[in-house]
Amino acid sequence: MARFTTLVLGTAVLSVSSALPTDTTHHRSARAQAVVEAFKTSWEGYYTYAFPNDELKPVTNGFSNSRNGWGASAADALSTALIMGERTIVNQIISHIPNINWASTSTEVSLFETTIRYLGGMLAGYDLLTGPLADLADYQEDVDALLAQAINLANNLSYAFETPTGIPWNNLDFATRGNDGSENGLATVGTLILEWVRLADLTGNATYANLVEQAEGYLLHPSPPSSEPFPGLLGMNINVTTGLFTDARGGWIGGADSFYEYLIKMYIYNPSRYSPLKDRWITAAESSIQYLASNPVTRPDLTFLSMFENTTVEEKSQHLACFDGGNFILAGQVLGEQRYINFGLALVKGCHDTYTQTATGIGPETFAWDPANVPDNQTMFFQRAGFYITNPQYILRPEVMEGYYYAYRATGNSMYQDWAWDAFVAINATTRVGSGYSSINDVNVVGGGGFQDFQESFWFAEVLKYSYMIHADEAEWQVARDGNNAWVFNTEAHPVKVLDT
Ligand SMILES: *[C@@H]1O[C@H](CO)[C@@H](O)[C@H](O)[C@H]1NC(C)=O
Ligand SMILES: *[C@@H]1O[C@H](CO)[C@@H](O)[C@H](O)[C@H]1NC(C)=O
Ligand SMILES: *[C@@H]1O[C@H](CO)[C@@H](O)[C@H](O)[C@H]1NC(C)=O
Ligand SMILES: *[C@@H]1O[C@H](CO)[C@@H](O)[C@H](O)[C@H]1NC(C)=O
Ligand SMILES: *[C@@H]1O[C@H](CO)[C@@H](O)[C@H](O)[C@H]1NC(C)=O
Ligand SMILES: *[C@@H]1O[C@H](CO)[C@@H](O)[C@H](O)[C@H]1NC(C)=O
């Protein structure tokens, strides 16, 4: 949407604001502006061809509904549009929220995904629009509806906790109030507490907090003891009938990851109430430094965190796990512990190499550095890079960019802004297609080895937000250098206002 008129006078180029209300209220750096352009391109494609479905299929200009058809990309784009000051998009999204019928869906509902994307997106929108960005909403009733619909959504989901232990089912069938009867996971149980506690604090209905705290208790005091092979590091599967873990396999990987992330983030949200969770974060962090930190034999300058099964470590990791550096840095700032910051910066550097060593400049979905298992056709690559690729896709994941963001906020070192810019340029160059951006098949082939025709909703919530914020001006939601944060980002990068005390 053209909101500026460009006047060319001789050699001078002046941009003057038109009489229309402007989306941009302050000067932006060229890099920040380029990220906003990518956001607008993605949004225009989605809004034209997919809205109010969940995702855009940018190659074919189609849509998909992997998140129950409630408009996942809209919910996930809201807090990014707000932070970018994109007023038109903000109001397109918030005028849609009241129309969503949470009770109506033909597919299985994930308690975890619904919480981090929809509930987190609406609560962040509500916090920003009742706080520092109140002037971006055209209609107050749309702002009120964000909280009303968050309540409706939580009330639709809350039967998930009606199990013998209170540990919820994750996979729900709303039509029958059913569940899939399987075990639940460490991340899917342990990544509800920030959103549901915020909802409790905003509404005064303590039930939302009680439900998630009851479940969290089983993660803080895991049983049997064998499920905690290193102090603070846990298995990933829990029987919701017994409350017992059924394995001892894990790490800072998908399926476990954001449980550890939220331990320290809950302490930021409310330090007096969640001090015990901070202590568990420290226990997990110390074990990770002691037992999981790993330097590839061919590149001892790099640091990754291994996975484990029982007390056996496996030299394998994932793009998803690359949030770990940022989480150590954040905790180090909040706890005043430089050791955690330094360790986090080392992890960020390792993940940086997973990007810079590939043909596209984008990192793979999964990788490993076990010298005994290097595929024949990657021995040269392993020698040079220090890791080899075990799944070459890139599905528009944010964690490496997220790490750069925290590293920059902690150090003020512009090298991290350069790393973020290089990654953004690489992602833009290879995944930009048709009406938006798409997952690709192979980060180690120039051009990406083919498009999967899918634009994940977290592209809006996370990649574009962190890519923007690292170049953006100071704002109260930016992570604070001194560890005194006014906001804390949920695992989907939706900013939650910390509890007023
Ligand atoms: C589910 O959400 C809808 C709004 O989308 C609301 O009308 C309904 O009351 C909610 N159901 C429950 C059980 O709270
Ligand atoms: C508080 O939330 C619970 C859980 O969804 C709900 O059952 C209950 O009706 C709510 N209480 C009030 C007073 O709204
Ligand atoms: C969970 O434990 C109960 C009680 O021991 C058992 O009947 C059930 O099969 C277990 N569930 C799974 C998914 O293993
Ligand atoms: C881990 O321990 C469990 C239970 O003792 C066992 O079944 C499993 O084989 C062990 N795994 C490894 C890799 O040692
Ligand atoms: C390496 O070999 C595997 C298995 O044969 C194959 O799938 C993969 O495409 C090859 N990778 C490269 C970079 O040639
Ligand atoms: C992103 O890609 C588009 C389309 O190829 C291009 O016009 C734009 O300049 C690129 N942006 C950056 C920052 O590289």
Unreliably modeled segments: 1-25
What number is the mean pLDDT? 95
Biggest sheet character: 3 strands, antiparallel
Structural class: alpha+beta
CATH class: Mainly Alpha
Number of strands: 21
Strand content: 5-15%
**Through-space gap between termini:** 41 Å
CATH architecture verdict: Alpha/alpha barrel
Give the number of domains: 1
Helix content: 40-55%
Q: What's the gyration radius in Å? A: 22 Å
CATH fold descriptor? Glycosyltransferase
The helix count comes to 16
Give the bound compounds. 2-acetamido-2-deoxy-beta-D-glucopyranose
Largest sheet, spatial ordering of strands = 5-6-7
Shape: globular
Polypeptide structure, described:
- By secondary structure, the protein is of the alpha+beta class.
- It has one domain: Alpha/alpha barrel (Glycosyltransferase), CATH 1.50.10.
- The protein is 44% helix and 12% strand.
- It contains 16 helices and 21 strands.
- A three-stranded antiparallel sheet has the order 5-6-7.
- Strand 13 and strand 14 form a beta hairpin.
- One 2-acetamido-2-deoxy-beta-D-glucopyranose binds next to helix 15.
- Its EC number is 3.2.1.-.
- Keywords: Calcium, Disulfide bond, Glycoprotein, Glycosidase, Hydrolase, Metal-binding, Signal.
- Pathway: Protein modification; protein glycosylation.
- GO terms for molecular function: calcium ion binding; mannosyl-oligosaccharide 1,2-alpha-mannosidase activity.
- Pfam families: Glyco_hydro_47.
Keywords:
three-stranded antiparallel β-sheet, alpha+beta, binds 2-acetamido-2-deoxy-beta-D-glucopyranose, Glycosyltransferase, Glycosyl_Hydrolase_47
